[in-house]
Amino acid sequence: MTETLPNYVLQLLAAIAVLAYGIGSIPFGLLLTQLGGAGDIRAIGSGNIGATNVLRTGRRGLAAATLLLDGGKGAFAVLCGFILSPFHTAPAMAVAALFAVIGHCFPIWLKFKGGKGVATGLGAALALSPLTGLACCALWLGVAKLTKISSAGALAAFVAMPVLLTLLNGGDLRSPIPLAGLLIALLVIARHHGNIRRLLNGTEPRIGRKNP
């Protein structure tokens, strides 16, 4: 992705990566639950800072706001990459998407203990490729509604994401945007290792439960 790019472009991509990481690392779930009087989300349920765990507080409004803001920061980071690198938009958007999700999963402000990247990854996907983003969101919601298990929907969406991005970008997985989609998918799936284990043994909690 970067072999033929001049040095100044590589430096710009590095700057975009830092910016996107900073945007992605804003812990909206933690901030909203504290401001909303729901306490420290890290001491509730699974301890995750994402919308699914915020829902376990019983505060649906806070969970919805967390979902929208976490998705929004993924999309906003990609938009920043697009604006800041008008002549190399695909690499810039790909770098921004990947590092926004990395920032959410490993925020420096929380000692690198963040969320699982689902909403941020879907927001980034919507900005990278609206059709892919919409398809992945529909798959996530559909599988989650069918199974009543949020992680099942998330895993289905992120398994599909790199496939869809590749098909919509000429079938070349090595191009920047499909490659970013693959790396994001691998990161999100890896962050769900505990969920995968519980899905396999039938102990994964259902949507809406307050306990993990």
TrEMBL record:
Subcellular location: Cell membrane
Keywords: Acyltransferase, Cell membrane, Lipid biosynthesis, Lipid metabolism, Membrane, Phospholipid biosynthesis, Phospholipid metabolism, Transferase, Transmembrane, Transmembrane helix
Taxonomy, superkingdom: Bacteria
InterPro entries: G3P_acylTferase_PlsY
GO MF, one example: acyl-phosphate glycerol-3-phosphate acyltransferase activity
GO cellular component, one term: plasma membrane
Reaction equation(s) it catalyzes: an acyl phosphate + sn-glycerol 3-phosphate = a 1-acyl-sn-glycero-3-phosphate + phosphate
Pathway: Lipid metabolism; phospholipid metabolism
Membrane-spanning intervals of the chain: 12-32, 62-84, 90-110, 122-143, 149-168
Protein name, as recorded: Glycerol-3-phosphate acyltransferase
Organism: Gluconacetobacter liquefaciens
